[in-house]
Amino acid sequence: MKDIIISAKRIKTELITLAVCFLIAFAANVGAVIAYKSPAIEILSSLHYVLIATVVLYTFVAVIRVILALAFGWFRNSKK
What we know:
Blueprint: H1 8-35, H2 41-45, H3 47-78
Helix pairs in contact: 1-3
């Protein structure tokens, strides 16, 4: 069997994407705490919801990236 090698550049790209998804989810949580005038402890106590939102957002972004990669790959191949 062949080994799968993931480049350092790909790992860095995916970690940055995941970090951006976390920051978006965290910012949405902070915005909700401010909008509903909840206690500040809600930011930490609802961190598990933020992590779930991060995974959902990352999955959504990954699906969009796959669709775009397939579409642009299809257009690149059709020009030949």
